[in-house]
């Protein structure tokens, strides 16, 4: 009884199921080829190596790698170029010529405000130079010819032609800069040397011409 049960053919082994019979046998394909080449290239055997058609995934991966490589090279090139052009703030010179005394009429001359932040003032005694920086919080006032005063646009401080504060929150008069004549008779201004109100009498704070 026991041998009969052992020798009996297993029906399920002998008769292939309908579903497995319909799947054609697949050839063994190395994993590398499966990853690198499309089914078409493998089955048709078109060329070898790089000649064969690559799968879409591999193409995309290669594109991504090359994009990263070129991006890295581009970034490094940009960084190298920037190294030779450092971000430097070029300040205007502190010592410069403003021409001859005869170039300045009586009153306030604002020609050098934009370039050097100064006003050149001629009065009955000579020429002095005001530093155009409000003594409240450092804004640049405007010369108001009709009102005959410097008016700060930030908080309304006012200074007369001499640079003395008379309205608004500015706590003290404007500073004057050093001014002198050079050997050729030109006026030389040096903004590195400022004279507050108490030192306006210093001979370097005015040129008597
Ligand atoms: S900065 Fe000029 S009034 Fe304030």
Unreliable stretches covering 5 or more consecutive residues: 1-14
How is the CATH topology of the largest domain named? Rieske Iron-sulfur Protein
Main beta sheet: 4 strands, antiparallel
Shape: rod-shaped
Ligand inventory reads: FE2/S2 (inorganic) cluster
- Mean pLDDT, all residues: 84
Secondary structure: number of strands: 10
Radius of gyration: 44 Å
Biggest sheet strand order reads 5-6-7-8
As a percent range, the share of helical residues equals 25-40%
What is the element string, with H for helices and E for strands? Answer: HHHHHHEEHEEEEEEEE
The oligomeric status of these chains comes to: single chain
CATH class of the largest domain: Mainly Beta
Query: What is the fourth-level CATH superfamily of the largest domain?
Result: Rieske [2Fe-2S] iron-sulphur domain
Short description:
With 209 residues, the protein is an alpha+beta fold.
Structure description:
This protein is α+β, with helices and mostly antiparallel strands and 209 residues long. It has two domains: 18-84, no CATH class; 95-205, Rieske [2Fe-2S] iron-sulphur domain (Rieske Iron-sulfur Protein, 3-layer Sandwich), CATH 2.102.10.10. Helices cover 28% and strands 21% of the residues. The chain is built from seven helices and ten strands. It has helices at 2-7, 11-14, 18-21, 31-36, 39-44, 56-84, 113-116, and strands at residues 95-99, 107-109, 118-122, 127-131, 142-144, 149-151, 158-159, 165-167, 176-181, 187-195. A four-stranded antiparallel sheet has the order 5-6-7-8, with no helix packed on it. Strand 3 (118-122) and strand 4 (127-131) form a beta hairpin. The longest helix is centred in the middle third of the chain and has 29 residues, at 56-84. Mean pLDDT is 84; it is low at 1-14. Residues 134, 136-139, 152, 154-157, 168-170 line the site of FE2/S2 (inorganic) cluster.
């Amino acid at each position: 009884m026991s041998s009969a049960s052992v020798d009996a053919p297993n029906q399920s082994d002998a008769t292939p199921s309908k579903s497995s019979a319909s799947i054609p046998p697949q050839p063994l394909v190395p994993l590398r080829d499966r990853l690198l080449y499309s089914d078409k290239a493998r089955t048709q055997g078109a060329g070898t190596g790089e000649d064969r058609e690559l799968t879409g995934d591999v193409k995309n991966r290669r594109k991504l790698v090359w994009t990263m490589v070129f991006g890295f090279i581009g970034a490094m090139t940009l960084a190298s170029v920037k190294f030779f052009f450092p971000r430097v703030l070029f300040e205007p010179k502190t010592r410069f010529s403003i021409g001859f005394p005869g170039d300045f009429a009586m009153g306030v001359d604002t020609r050098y405000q934009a370039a050097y932040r100064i006003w050149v003032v001629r009065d009955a005694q000579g020429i002095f130079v005001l530093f155009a920086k409000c003594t409240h919080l450092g804004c640049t006032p405007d010369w108001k010819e009709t009102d005959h005063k410097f008016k700060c646009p930030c908080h309304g401080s006012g200074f007369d032609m001499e640079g003395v504060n008379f309205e608004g929150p500015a706590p003290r008069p404007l500073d004057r800069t050093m001014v002198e004549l050079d050997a050729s008779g030109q006026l030389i201004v040096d903004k590195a040397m400022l004279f507050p109100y108490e030192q306006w009498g210093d001979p370097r704070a005015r040129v008597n011409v």
